Amino acid sequence: MKKQHLGFELIIYDDENELPAFEKRLLDKAIKARKSAYAPYSNFQVGAAVLMENGEVVIGNNQENASYPSGLCAERVAVFQAGALYPGVGMLAIAVSAASNNHLVDVPAGPCGNCRQAIFEYEVKQKSPISVLLQGEKGPVFKCGSISDILPLAFGNSFLGDS
């Protein structure tokens, strides 16, 4: 038997004002996207912004549907749109902001498992990390250097023999 510890480094900023300017701008775009989310059922709005290697920023927000689970999370809306608009252009970072109509979200909300897997696919495809910034509607900002950090033992194309 062998034990192995899996872990990652998480940078925690007290708030968005401690971020480098380019990351603050990216988070600001995620916040703006969050404010136009379509979330009439959960009342939980999420916005995402993806920084591309060419300097473009692609946004997304959660889109709910009365026919669950037909909706889509902000992170997947953003990365799928980025992949469609800029095929072959790498993604450098994704910022995610979450808020609720029912309570104050003052801690970062991480992407769901489906979103982590979708972002991981692009990380594998481009062979470089996608950093992740997370914040609630206020409070600390979490930063990790790669989506792989928060998706240990990820399922990738190597399991399909396509690596």
How is this structure best described in words?
The protein is of the alpha+beta class and 163 residues long. Helices cover 25% and strands 22% of the residues. It has helices spanning 21-34, 74-85, 113-126; strands at residues 11-13, 44-52, 57-61, 91-100, 131-135, 141-144. A six-stranded mixed beta sheet has the order 1-6-5-4-2-3. Helix 2 packs parallel to helix 3 (113-126). The chain is globular and about 45 Å long. The two termini are 28 Å apart. The relative contact order is 0.19.
Topology:
Elements: E1 11-13, H1 21-34, E2 44-52, E3 57-61, H2 74-85, E4 91-100, H3 113-126, E5 131-135, E6 141-144
Parallel strand pairs: 4-5
Antiparallel strand pairs: 1-6, 2-3, 2-4, 5-6
Helix pairs in contact: 2-3
Compose a concise summary of this entry.
With 163 residues, the chain is an alpha+beta fold.
Summary tags:
163 residues, alpha+beta, 6-stranded mixed sheet, 3 helices
Beta content comes to 15-25%
Please give the number of β-strands.
Answer: 6
Low confidence ranges: none
Order of helices and strands: EHEEHEHEE
> What order do the strands of the largest sheet run in, or round the barrel if closed?
1-6-5-4-2-3
Any idea what the shape is? globular
**Number of helical segments with 4 or more residues:** 3
